Amino acid sequence: MDMSMVSIFIGLALLMFLAYRGHSIIWVAPACAALVALMSSMDILNTYLNDYMKGLAGYVTSWFPAFFLGAVYGKVMDMTGSARSLANSLVDIIGAKRAVAAVVIPCLLMTYGGISLFVVVFVIYPMGYAIYRAANLPRTLLPGAIAYGAFGITMTAVPGTPQIQNLIPTQFYNTTPMAAPLMSIVAIILIGGPGYLYLEWRARQARARGQGFVEDAKFVEVARSKVKLPSWHWLSGLLPIIAVVLLLNLFKQHIVVSLLGGIALCCLMNIQQAKTLLPAISAGAEGSLTAIMNTSCAVGFGSVVRVVPGFAKLTSMMMNMPGSILFSEAVAVNVLAGATGSASGGMSIALTALAPQYLEKAIAMGLNPEYLHRIASLSSGGLDTLPHNGAVLTLLAVSHCTHKESYWDVCVTTCIIPFVGSLALALLWGLFI
Length: 433
Fold this sequence. Notes:
0% strand
């Protein structure tokens, strides 16, 4: 193995370590990219100004509108209380006796409706806290349920989801968000089923051991409604979600148009809260910058990795792996999503480097590119949730839980099961196509 290839693994390992230690990827990514360039005997300044910055800027150019409008949409739904009203209504219907479902279903609906998983965490945690208290379940189990609903199948597997992880492959394979519906259904069963059963098993296990709810001294509950809202207010949480999904999939509108439609409808239905709307838009706009910069910096690192001599050898090894190109893609996306701690960042790096070759092979063998789309999306939601993942760190911080207390449930439902499921699906599907 030559030094250039070694530099890639060292750079990735250092990136993971520093991110896990809580350091900002905004400086960690270029520093690790510089190390890769130095070990590969490349000019560091030229590599940074050209390869790194071009990769970063290219991602911002392509995806800033989706990040920006997605964050604004989520904040409007959050600050007007629309998302909370919808979740409260669902909880009233489902009941605390089915605590896991009462937490998971609102998460699934919100993420399928295009709301950022970060926003979902903040919206759902206070309700989940009350639900798990009523069900007398340990609150340390709550992060696993939220992660399963917010970081799982509606991000990658359910056809038509407007989440960025389902949109990125459309640029590389000329597909639509509804790509490979049959494979998607199989993935929902293969990945979603075991995850939910695991969470229910953990709840039964806690009850059998006599483990109950313990109050969180750091958490201050807020009254369910600080403003007087109409009884139909839950519809202002549901209808914008439906609008985004229909505009994107049924009416084939761009994600920008779809999100604008959801924002406009939510604003109209909350016109009585006019004073809240502009601050919500501003908060969403500011929040989008951090999200896209973190991901773009990871993509910039990948852009440097892609130009070092050792990457050509890695690409050749990946393309010549045993099995189909679907399995090769699943491995590549999983590994890079894990290395960067970002589903969208890791997938973008992998597809930018490998998608043209995958697509060429798929066309030559008569393979529908929609399968490549769906496997890429599914695989991005596997190893991305290793301990250094930003969403995981946010969830644990909001929940006032440590990795030791709650990460294992998050890992099983959003990392181990999706990782194994995506590889198994890619391997088996490749045998029968």
